[in-house]
Design goal:
- This protein is of the alpha+beta class.
- It is built from 18 helices and 20 strands.
- Helix content is 31%, strand content 21%.
- The chain has an 8-stranded mixed beta sheet with strand order 2-3-5-4-6-10-7-8. The protein has a 6-stranded antiparallel beta sheet with strand order 16-19-15-20-17-18, covered by helices on one side.
- Helix 6 packs across helix 11.
- It binds zinc ion.
- The site of zinc ion has 4 residues, from loops.
Length: 695
């Protein structure tokens, strides 16, 4: 997840304070709301002890105590400047994390547990451990769902008491499927160590086995496997362990948590085609570590909520997850919070902006399939073992919830699917409105924030103020903005018609598990085409693209011809919202945004001035309205007036020689469903919309 954090949000404030004061001035943060508690005093004593042991007042290890690894960092560089954290809510005797229960036999301990939370297993050791787990339990199966860019198998552990080790067998049980995805950012890897320990405890050591009665669990121990093997002490400068960790992007430089819609990385394509759209997990859990300012909350979360989210999922997240799972986490000794990014970027007191994510992110993606997704973010400064424990406890609490209310999640997903299918069949166009983007409103609810007293110190390095976090609690009530308002909507058509030559678009339909049909014979109909009136492309590259932002679209009704083999995408299917997000020109992660249709913006033919000029004269003579329009533009638009090319183009574009498909989105918005007689017949009984069958 991006690090829209307290630290970043405080920087403008810091800059303004720096402006007011000279170097070496100290600007205090808001004082602690109450005197330090005995626990806080104990923590302060622990900090002082840490300083005595070679950690300076900033919590940095003292230069000179060089680390013994032989890494690519030059020997004369100081050690990794990881800040020593103040103890978290779940502080323990071991500075790296909690003691491993004596009930866990040595043979079954993960590398993280055996190393006192200093290390995490590499890919090969993780695979060996997964095979060991599989050999140790009848309820486990290890499968590969594809290969990475560098040729590694992509592992998945299936956990099922019913031995439902295929999607079909899982569906037959009627139980919800939970997909726990770890290491999409492979340096943020506590999810792997938490998941492996949880699977071991439940399925091998037979603790709390009842928690596996009510669901089927899929675990991706490491999703971004190649990046996981780019191990180093120097991959995440802010993070407090493990000693070596993986990298954020794949070897192709792609961030998998921006790839859900464009689906370019082999890892994404394998996940979506072979796991997500085969198993159709009711809940996706995406485990991360967040950067950012220090606070006492040890686990934060995010999910889509409010406007644009299927109402049944919204309700499940609020009642089941926030109402019960988060409460349970608190009982287990954690300090959970919604993902902590702050509003207006100026100060904490402006409140928490609990927003939704675009569908390039896991949490934005799943609801477009009428399914729930949960982002879990522990905090980088908390010791590794504490982060593993926080993730473990969250997963445990989720399984407890599914066991206590086994039908709540499946019920919510089935209802969300029904909602999507009903919208696709809705005859009244106005009732087919779909929200594509949202922002938070100005209505807030109170949130009890558990911060740390912070002192801002002027720095001649940064030229501004830098925060120094103490271990003293600073508690306050913040405004939490979580009500969403739509900022962009689209009226869903009856379906989309995709000309077959746009094969990259059709490939994405397949990868995303959308139901579509091929035309068996020529078909003509009046359809709506999206004419792009205003757009711009980002100059700065992003994920290997220059994102296109369409700011104005004109819908044009045209009679268009389609050929046998062209593709019909009906929207009365559970993933209808996903198709809309792929094909609407303004959708933030649509295929147009990701440059799939850039060629429509390029002019293919040009009129010579000496050819167009006499033609223009005839056009002006015949059409007084056009003459007026031209004169007005020349008078009002200096750049136009001084550009012979633009003046010629003005007439070329209004002449019969212009390209009718210039600036036209190539995918048609259908006003009616394509009649069955035009479609390639469906083989077998898999034609029911919403079943995920592909044709
Ligand atoms: Zn992340």
């Amino acid at each position: 997840m991006t690090t829209r954090t307290l630290l970043r949000s405080l920087l403008p404030l810091a800059a303004s304070l720096a402006f007011a004061g000279a170097l070496a001035q100290t600007a205090p943060a808001p004082a602690p709301a109450r005197p330090p508690s005995p626990q806080a005093l104990a923590r302060a004593r622990a900090d002082s002890a840490a300083r005595a042991s070679g950690i300076d007042s900033l919590g940095r290890t003292t230069p000179g105590r060089a680390l013994s690894d032989s890494d690519r960092r030059p020997a004369d560089m100081p050690p990794r400047p990881v800040l020593r954290p103040a103890p978290a809510a779940t502080a323990s005797a071991n500075p790296n994390g909690p003691a491993v229960p004596a009930t866990i036999p040595g043979f079954w301990r993960t590398r993280a547990e055996r190393s006192g939370w200093r290390q995490t297993s590499d890919y090969d050791e993780t695979m060996r451990y997964c095979r060991q787990l599989e050999a140790g339990s009848r309820w486990l199966k290890l499968v590969s769902y594809g290969t990475s860019g560098q040729g590694r198998e992509l592992p998945m552990l299936i956990v099922s008491k019913d031995r439902a080790f295929t999607p079909e067998a899982a569906r037959a049980t009627g139980k919800p499927v939970v997909l726990i995805q770890n290491g999409i950012h492979s340096g943020e890897i506590e999810g792997k160590d938490a998941s492996l320990a949880l699977v071991r405890d439940l399925a091998v050591l037979h603790q709390r086995t009842e928690l596996l009665d009510s669901c089927i669990v899929l675990v991706l121990p490491i999703y971004s496997v190649d990046a996981h093997e780019r191990r180093s002490r120097y991959n995440r400068i802010n993070q407090n362990g493990p000693d070596e960790m993986g990298w954020r992007s794949t070897p192709l430089g792609l961030n998998l948590n921006r790839d859900y819609m464009k689906a370019e990385a082999p890892e994404t394509r394998a996940l979506l085609a072979n796991v997500y759209t085969k198993w159709w997990p009711e809940l996706l859990v995406d485990d991360h570590t967040t950067d950012g300012a220090d606070y006492r909350h040890d686990v934060t979360y995010s999910f889509q909520h409010g406007a644009g989210v299927p109402a049944p999922l919204d309700r499940w997240m609020s009642e089941a997850f926030e109402g019960r799972v988060v409460k349970r986490l608190t009982e287990l000794g954690h300090l959970p919070a919604p993902y902590l990014s702050f509003r207006r970027g100026s100060d904490v007191s402006s409140g928490i902006d609990f927003t939704n994510s675009d569908p390039r992110f896991s949490t934005g993606y799943a609801p477009l399939h009428a399914r729930a997704a949960l982002l879990v973010e522990t905090h980088m400064l908390k010791p590794y073992g504490d982060r593993v424990k926080a993730t473990y406890d969250l997963l445990l609490a989720l399984l407890e919830e599914l066991h206590a209310h086994p039908r709540a999640l499946t019920g919510a997903v089935r209802a969300a699917e029904a909602e999507a299918i009903a919208r696709g069949r809705e005859p009244v166009a106005a009732r087919r409105t779909l929200v594509l983007e949202t922002r938070t409103t100005d209505r807030a609810v109170p949130f009890a924030f558990r911060g740390k007293a912070t002192v801002w110190q002027a720095s001649d390095i940064t030229g501004t103020l830098v925060p120094r976090y103490s271990s003293a609690p600073w508690d306050t009530i913040l405004s939490l903005y979580r009500e969403m308002a739509p900022t962009l909507t689209a009226q869903q058509p009856a379906g989309y018609l995709v000309p077959q030559e746009w094969s990259a678009a059709i490939d994405r339909l397949q990868i995303h598990g959308l139901v579509f049909r091929r035309l068996a014979k020529a078909y003509r109909d009046t359809v709506e085409m999206q004419r792009i009136v205003e757009w711009n492309a980002e100059a700065q590259g992003f994920e290997g693209h220059h994102l296109v932002h369409v700011t104005k679209v004109a819908l044009e009704r045209q009679s268009r011809a389609f050929r046998p083999g062209d593709v019909w995408v009906p929207l009365d299917q559970r993933s209808g919202a996903l198709a809309v997000n792929l094909f609407e020109a303004q959708a933030p992660d649509g295929l147009m945004a990701w440059n799939f249709f850039d060629t429509v913006f390029q002019k293919k033919e040009y009129g010579e001035d000496y050819v167009v000029e006499p033609l223009a004269r005839q056009m002006l003579a015949k059409d007084p309205q056009l003459a007026k329009e031209f004169a007005t533009k020349v008078a009002a638009d200096t750049a136009f007036a001084h550009s012979p090319g633009a003046r010629v183009d003005f007439f070329y574009r209004r002449s019969p020689w212009t390209d009718p498909d210039q600036d036209l989105h190539p995918v048609a918005r259908a006003l009616h469903a394509v009649p069955e007689i035009y479609l390639v017949p469906v083989a077998g009984a898999a034609s029911e919309p919403g079943t995920g069958a592909r044709h």
